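We now fix the convention by which a protein and its fold are recorded. These numbers are not coordinates but entries in a learned vocabulary of local backbone shapes. A record is reproduced here so that you can trace the correspondence yourselves:
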Amino acid sequence: MTDIWTLIGDILSFVTIASCLISKVPQIMTIYQQKNTAGLSMKGLVIETVSYTISTLYNFTNSYRILNYFEYIILLAQNYMLIVIVLFYRKQLNQKFIGCAVLYALVASLFAMYILPKSILTFLIPGTLPMSATSKILQLLEILRSKDSSSISAITWFISAFTNATRIYTIFLDSADIMLLTNFIVSTGLSSSVLAAVMYYKKPKGKEE
């Protein structure tokens, strides 16, 4: 019976990773096609990226199965592209951004090479829950404030809610890490809330100016 649950967990992990391969692509394409970033929270996107980075490094340095966190690596790559595209259309690609990017890459590399102690990541991982929640709350508030989700991809947020939900099962099966489980439960609820707001404020094509 245990093998069956493990098989189900592996299948869900593969589905999650496959979904994450295209998770941010609809959002990137929407911005590229519309040349517009209205309703998108840059602060939320940056906080989400930091949260993904800490989670990736935490899982990596604790030698957890890569199937249980590989989507973070994929999402990080897509987030990097999304940040650059958003800053490009907002005309904010400058030396300050380059400096921050270099510092970020340096610190992440020091953790990955075990030069910085993983105890720091153990200390930081509880913070990924409020960070993840904050990034989604900021995005939700931005949509509610602007009452415009024309540049926000509903597909991206559906995939976010779906993959977070599948991770509740796979993490419970693999490590039952309470911090990771709590993170995914809260993230599932908030991603679903953002998806609902996107659908509610999505303007019909005939009414778009």
